[in-house]
């Protein structure tokens, strides 16, 4: 892939086709004796699909996440993405020059990311350069964060069920079928707040209640469906 240009293109974010996963076991292990659909494979594409699209047509440091993470002109913090998932947010931040450490605790999701990063290292120099700023770690971020002192920690746990009937994006339903919910999101936020030296960013659905025992954010960046709660340190 060449450096992003402003040409128009089609977003082909359809790699993951999914049946209805509402019956899949929360741990993602389909029960052979049930009528659950076969679990869809996890796939991570740093070159094409939604990630490539965001890279070509995104708004650079003016986008909500880079803004929330404090990437301004001339300021590029060291970031830990404590909830790596598909690695999209980490890739965006790395594409803007940040060194990003990704932490993922699901063995399946971690393996998917490792594969995706390996494939991306075989792409062109532009993608290889971005991937070279990404370091993937396996484990529970509540533990892995101990002993780290990043400028910024980004936390994007699996979101609580929506109050509306709006369908969750296909790939998020697949991810949920593997990792279930993240009931320890509050503890993860506490761990993040205790190690970050500049700020913690919580990515959360715009209409969801705040995490109960976490202090009020310093400010928020609110989008159509997602909001970024920014907790400044010091
Ligand atoms: C909503 S997804 C994150 C999506 C990600 N922001 C992206 O851009 O693709 C949440 C992911 O965080 C992981 N996760 C949640 N809590 C974690 C923790 N304490 N340590 C490590 N990974 C965690 C889950 O396994 C899941 O893969």
Automatic annotation (TrEMBL):
Main location: cytoplasm
SUPFAM superfamilies: S-adenosyl-L-methionine-dependent methyltransferases
One Gene Ontology MF term: methyltransferase activity
Subcellular location, record wording: Cytoplasm
Region (Disordered): 1-36
Basic and acidic residues bias locations: 1-17
Catalytic activity, reaction form: guanosine(1516) in 16S rRNA + S-adenosyl-L-methionine = N(2)-methylguanosine(1516) in 16S rRNA + S-adenosyl-L-homocysteine + H(+)
One Pfam family per UniProt: SAM_MT
Record-listed S-adenosyl-L-methionine binding positions: 88-89, 104-105, 156
Family: Belongs to the methyltransferase superfamily. RsmJ family.
Protein name: Ribosomal RNA small subunit methyltransferase J
Gene source species: Kiloniella antarctica
Gene name of this polypeptide: rsmJ
């Amino acid at each position: 892939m060449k450096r992003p240009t402003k040409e128009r293109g089609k977003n082909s974010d359809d790699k993951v086709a999914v049946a209805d996963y509402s019956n899949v076991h929360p741990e993602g292990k389909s029960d052979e004796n049930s009528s659950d659909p076969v679990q869809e494979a996890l796939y991570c594409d740093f070159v094409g699909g939604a990630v490539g699209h965001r890279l070509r047509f995104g708004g650079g440091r003016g986008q909500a996440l880079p803004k929330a993470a404090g990437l301004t002109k001339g300021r590029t913090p060291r970031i830990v993405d404590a909830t790596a998932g598909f690695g999209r947010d980490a890739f965006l931040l790395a594409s803007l020059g940040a060194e990003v450490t990704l932490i993922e605790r699901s063995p399946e999701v971690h393996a998917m990311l490792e594969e995706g990063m390996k494939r991306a290292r075989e792409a062109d120099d532009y993608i290889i350069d971005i991937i070279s700023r990404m370091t993937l770690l396996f484990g529970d971020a509540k533990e892995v964060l101990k002993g780290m002192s990043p400028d910024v920690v980004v936390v994007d746990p699996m979101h609580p069920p929506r109050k509306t009937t709006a369908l969750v994006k296909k790939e998020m339903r697949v991810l949920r079928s593997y990792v279930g919910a993240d009931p320890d999101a509050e503890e993860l936020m506490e761990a993040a707040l205790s190690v970050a030296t500049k700020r913690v960013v919580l990515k959360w659905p715009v209409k969801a209640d705040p995490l109960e025992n976490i202090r009020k954010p310093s400010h928020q960046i609110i989008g159509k469906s997602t909001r970024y709660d920014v907790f400044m340190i010091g």
